Amino acid sequence: MPTEALPRQVGRYQILGSIGRGGMGVVYRARTRGPADATRESALKVIHDHLAVDQHFVLMFLDEMRIAMGLTHRNVVQTYDAGHEEGHYFMVMELVEGWSLAELLARVKEPLPLDLAVFVGMEVASALDYAHTLSPPVIHRDVSPANILVSVRGDVKLTDFGIAKAARRLTVTSADVLKGKLGYMAPEQARGQATPASDLFSLGAVLYEMLSGQRIRRGGDVDSVKHGSIQPLRRVAPVALPPELERLVSACLAPTIAERPATASLLREGLLREHFAIQAASGQPLDSHRRLAGFLAERLGQPGGEVERGAEEDREGRLARAILAHAGELDAGPGRTVTCPPTPAEGRRVTLGLAPIPTGDQLTTPTEPRTVPVTPALAPPPVVQPPTLILERAAAPRPRARRGGALLLTAAATLILVGAGVGVGFWVRGGATSSASDAAASPSPAPEAALSRASPDAAAPRS
Asked: I need a surface site. Which of 40, 69, 103, 455 has the fewest CB within 10 A?
């Protein structure tokens, strides 16, 4: 399977086409299938034949692959797999739809916009901060525009993490590769003493090139890297740069490690402050990913519809930013308008009318009610009452009502019975009085007869 010809299959990966080639090998677009016919496309790099026979290179390559496969960060191109097939070594990486920063700089042929250059540097610093804080720290050793990818979505990713150590053997056989790496290499790295600070130097060299359109050094040899000087950024930049940004880049390019930022995190924080300041001064969109995606679509073409949709969705964001930018003038009176500049995708301006904001007195002073006509298109939707959920427990109060009625009936019956008892009492008393009068008028009967008249039950025979 020669790397120059397009293979159909590499292991379990189906080759769909060629992406490019570099000093280490050829990169293909590949597809792999999983359970339930699920597929995933990735970038598959096949190492060149002449490197695959170098056993020392192969050992370093495999060792670095074990490290790279453990890296997971949004600004790092993830390595999924690595293997050996028919005498050829390959690695499988995340597929990034976009371009390398080297391709971008070569095609625009000018420095990047200030906010985008700082944004790219900030994202790369985030990737380095992640790698440098691992245990043990992982040093990239080859931070350069060729290894920084920018996607059509505006993402920034650092690739080839972990293989730069093995790639150093390429300098023995390729003068062009050595020449390219020297343009971003730190002095101590040229002496064989790479540290995390060496990656910060290389990132400073990338920032220098994005801001000025020129490299810190062209050509030269290892001695020029170790002892050469770098022209100040302010002398080569076509526009005046913020002083703090220039100081950050110059600190990264300091010849000694002690003069550089202590960590990638501190460098990122400094770039983040400058990024916010640049956005506030220029009124650029707050979403830097979308801003970068729009710039790539404008300058490098339209790879797909995703960027176009992003530019369309950004219209509301630009309106909101225009309102915020003119917040101090909103109460100047009616009739004011804010006009937003068009994007390349729209080709037209958007004008927003601004109404005056009422003062505190106007808010507290009662006003006569006014009838405001509402068009059918803006009429509020009818209010739909939610259905009432009836539970069985809702019937619980009914027995209580029955008990209340029963109590009333019981009370009424009691009153009737009491009334009846009072009537009987009066009747008994009346009967007793009449009997007493009769007894007084007639001779007293025998006791048995008296008892028989007073109580009929008393005459009943006892059982």
From this structure: 455
Query: What residue type is 389 in one-letter code?
Result: L
How far apart are alpha carbons 250 and 248 in whole angstroms? 5
pLDDT band at 220 (very low <50, low <70, confident <90, very high): low
Q: Decide: 202 and 186 in contact? Cβ < 8 Å.
A: yes
Q: Tell me, yes or no, if 176 is annotated catalytic.
A: no
3-state class (DSSP) for residue 6: coil
How far apart, in Å, are the Cα atoms of 329 and each of 179, 280, 287, 325, 339?
56, 17, 25, 9, 14
Please state, in angstroms and as integers, the Cα–Cα distance from residue 16 to each residue in 42, 45, 235, following that order: 10, 13, 47
Give per-residue pLDDT as tens, 48-74.
888 888 888 888 888 878 888 889 999
Is residue 286 within 8 A of residue 279, CB to CB? The reply is yes
Rounded to whole angstroms, the Cα distance separating 88 from 86 reads 6
List the alpha helices (DSSP H) in 442-456: 447-454
**DSSP helix/strand/coil, 356:** coil
Q: What is the pLDDT of residue 87?
A: 80
Q: Greatest CA span in the chain, whole angstroms?
A: 162
The bridge status of strand 156-158 relative to strand 336-340 is unpaired
Catalytic one of 115, 129, 142, 160: 142
Beta strands in 300-349 (DSSP E): 336-340
Cα separations (Å) of 127 from 162, 269, 413? 13, 13, 91
Say what the pLDDT of residue 126 is.
98
State mean pLDDT over 16-38: 88
* pLDDT band for position 307 (cuts 50, 70, 90): very low
Cα–Cα separations (whole angstroms), residue 210 to 67, 108, 145, 233, 253:
30, 11, 9, 11, 14
CA dihedral sign of residues 169, 172, 176, 179? positive
Percentage of residues in the chain with pLDDT exceeding 90?
39
Q: How far is CA 105 from the centre of its chain?
A: 29
Question: Does the structure show a pLDDT above 50 at 459?
Answer: no
324 token code pair: 């915020």
Cβ-based neighbours of 190, under 8 Å, separated by 6 or more:
182, 222, 225, 226
- Tokens standing for 298? 């404008």
CB distance 138 to 131 below 8 Å: yes
306 or 80, greater pLDDT: 80
> Does residue 455 contact residue 447 with C-beta atoms inside 8 Å?
no
Predicted TM-score of the model (pTM): 0.64
